[in-house]
Amino acid sequence: MGTAVETKPLTRDPQIILNALRDRVPHLITDVGVDSLWEREVRLLLRDSVAVRSLAERILGQGVAYLVTAMENPGVDMGVGYTVDLGVHQIILDTPLYFAFCDEYNRGVYKHHAPLIERRRDGTVLRTAELLRRSGFAVDEELWSVDASDCSPCDNQVPDSH
Questions:
Q1: Kindly report the CA angle at 63 between 132 and 14, in degrees rounded to 5?
Q2: Cα separation of 121 and 67, whole Å?
Q3: Going by C-beta distance under 8 Å and a sequence separation of 6 or more, which residues neighbour residue 43?
Q4: pLDDT one-digit tens code per residue, 46-103
Q5: pLDDT confidence of 153, banded at 50, 70, 90?
C-alpha cells in the first residue's frame, strides 16, 4: 500500500470539480435540459436512491471527494460506507462522466471499481475520511460516521482499482 498524501489547504469544492468536466461531456447537460453536471447527478440520485435534495447534494459531494482522492493516491487503502458509496456509484454509473473523471484525475487511465463482497470493519471508513480532509476536501462527518464500522472495500488485487 502507498502512503497518504500530505495535508493540502481546504479549498477543493466538489461542485466546481464536477462542473469543470462540462466541456468533456456537454451532451450530458444539453440533451437533458439541466444547467450543470452537478444538477444532473443530484437529480439522478433523487430519482434512484435519495429522497431529500440536501442529502443528495451532500452524498454527491463526498462521492466526488472520494473519487478524486482515490485517483490522486493510487495504492492507498481506502473505502467508503454505504451512504457515501451512493455518490461514488452515481458517478461511476454515468459512464461518460466517469470516463471524463478518469481522464482528468487518473492520468487518462480508467480506474476500475472492483468491490469485495464482504464488508470490512477495521476503521477504513474513518481513515478514508481523514485522507479526504488532508487532500483539501471538507468532510461531512455525519455521512462518514453513520457507516464508520461498515466499509464497502474494493479488491486490492485488481490493478488500479478503488
A1: 75
A2: 21
A3: 34
A4: 999 999 999 999 999 999 999 999 999 998 888 888 899 999 999 999 999 999 999 9
A5: low
Give the separation between CA 1 and CA 45, rounded to whole angstroms: 32
Distances (CA, A) of 53 to 44, 49, 79, 112, 161: 11, 11, 24, 29, 30
Residues with Cβ within 8 Å of 118's Cβ and at least 6 positions away in sequence, in order, are none
Backbone angles phi, psi at 47, to 5 degrees: -65, -40
Cell of 17: 470539480
Q: Which residues 6+ apart lie within 8 Å of 157 measured at CB?
A: none
What the block records as the C-alpha cell of 72 is: 490522486
pTM over 0.85: yes
Q: Calculate ∠ Cα 97-152-147, nearest 5°.
A: 105
Amino acid, single-letter form, for residue 77: D
